[in-house]
């Protein structure tokens, strides 16, 4: 039945909710509105006409780090989604850039080349010309020439010293998640069912150690989904306040990747054309009483 198929594929809503949506006329089957649950086959086309919803408030202001008329790099605030998803459509960086460009009468709209997590702040690269976006996208791939460093507040990382970087090369893997079906996470090494795995590499350097945790600089070249959060969780030292990735490679079944609470900042960026950029983390980056001291260090 259609309700069972939708509940299986889109686990954010149980079968009875999908059945209610079908009966209210929200779902179309092969272009025809439905009033009751029906059987479906592999060749059927299903559409969901989702009613309008109120999107959560977001920070909608940012500073421009670089703009040459084609490439635009901003300091994205924590809490701003880059692309639609997770209940956000208009309250996203991509939508705000389009709206601002139209208001200014610009002929080309800056569009994101990559995607920082909603609660990751820092350097977000956009480009106006399709050719530029394609070239920059190539550089952001694992085999590309883009180099990025992040600042992260993590639980104390065992074995990490200021004078000795730590390289992490464990895979990020897709694990079962009750709300999403599958989610990227650390390798549990316990026989848990996995769907995919991707090679990833992170290099960690300790900047500051205190009672609350470690301030770590992380250099990445692979850019896998949630890579830094996952690699620190793999080490048993997840980001401070991370609601999803827990110690001992566990995943919180009640949380999703878009939930906030962690502190992660895209700090520096180097592109193949020699462009090197950096931006300072905002005032809310450091936890608690560390705020002033950490801001001075950064």
Word description of this protein:
This protein is α+β, with helices and mostly antiparallel strands and 298 residues long. The chain folds into three domains: 2-48, no CATH class; 53-140, Pseudouridine synthase; 141-298, Pseudouridine synthase, CATH 3.30.2350. Helices cover 18% and strands 28% of the residues. The protein is built from six helices and 16 strands. The strands form three sheets. Strands 4, 5, 6, 7, 8, 9, 13, 14, 15 and 16 form a ten-stranded mixed sheet that branches. α1 crosses α2 (15-23). The longest helix has 11 residues, at 93-103. The model is unreliable at 289-298 (pLDDT under 50).
Structural descriptors:
single chain; 298 residues; alpha+beta; Pseudouridine synthase; 3 domains; 3-stranded antiparallel β-sheet; 6 helices; 16 strands; 28% strand; disordered C terminus
Compose a concise summary of this entry.
This protein has 298 residues and is of the alpha+beta class. It contains 6 helices and 16 strands.
């Amino acid at each position: 039945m259609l309700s069972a198929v939708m509940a299986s594929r889109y686990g954010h809503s149980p079968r009875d909710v999908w059945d209610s949506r079908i009966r209210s006329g929200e779902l179309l089957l092969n272009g025809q509105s439905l009033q009751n649950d029906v059987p479906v086959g592999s060749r059927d086309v299903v559409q969901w006409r989702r009613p309008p919803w109120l999107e959560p408030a977001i920070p909608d202001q940012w500073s421009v780090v670089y703009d040459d008329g084609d490439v635009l790099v901003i300091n994205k605030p924590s809490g701003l989604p880059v692309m639609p998803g997770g209940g956000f459509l208009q309250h996203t960086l991509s939508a705000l850039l389009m709206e601002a460009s139209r208001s200014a009468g610009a002929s080309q709209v800056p569009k994101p080349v990559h995607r920082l997590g909603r609660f990751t702040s820092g350097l977000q690269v956009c480009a106006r010309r399709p050719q530029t976006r394609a070239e920059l996208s190539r550089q952001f791939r694992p085999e590309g020439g883009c180099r990025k460093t992040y600042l992260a507040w993590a639980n104390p990382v065992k074995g990490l010293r200021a004078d000795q970087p730590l390289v992490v090369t464990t895979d990020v893997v897709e694990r079962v998640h009750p709300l999403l079906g599958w989610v990227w996470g650390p390798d549990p090494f316990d026989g848990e069912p996995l769907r995919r795995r991707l090679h990833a590499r992170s290099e960690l350097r300790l900047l500051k150690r205190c009672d609350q945790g470690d301030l770590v600089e992380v250099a990445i070249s692979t850019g896998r989904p949630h890579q830094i959060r996952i690699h620190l969780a793999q080490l048993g030292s997840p980001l401070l306040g991370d609601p999803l990735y827990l110690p001992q490679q566990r995943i919180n079944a009640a949380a999703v990747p878009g939930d906030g609470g962690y502190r992660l900042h895209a700090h520096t960026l180097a592109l193949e054309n020699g462009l090197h950029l950096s931006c300072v983390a905002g005032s809310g980056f450091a936890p608690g009483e560390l705020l002033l001291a950490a801001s001075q260090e950064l």
